[in-house]
Task: inverse folding
């Protein structure tokens, strides 16, 4: 995998943002504890904005892990929308 952002720059950017809700914080901790990669806060905020931009009403996430990125997508979705998380790993 190619490095897109230098690790020290990525650490700095990560230090500027935090999970805005207890749920997102708990999901990120669960992912860390289980060794499941998550998208992180900066990408999560981007996913939220994408959902807002397209006025998302239905979202399907394939490979949802613990649902961290799905929770970000849900924050940007239209009220009453539906989010479907699919993961083939039962653990």
Result:
């Amino acid at each position: 995998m190619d490095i897109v952002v230098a690790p020290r720059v990525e650490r700095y950017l990560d230090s500027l943002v935090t999970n805005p809700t207890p749920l997102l914080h708990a999901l990120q901790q669960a992912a860390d504890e289980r060794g499941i990669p998550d998208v992180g806060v900066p990408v999560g905020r981007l996913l939220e904005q994408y959902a807002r931009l397209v006025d998302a009403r239905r979202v399907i996430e394939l490979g949802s892990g613990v649902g961290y990125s799905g929770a970000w997508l849900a924050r940007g979705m239209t009220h009453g929308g539906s989010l479907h998380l699919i993961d083939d790993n039962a653990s």
The first strand starts at residue 58 and ends at 62. The mean pLDDT is 90.
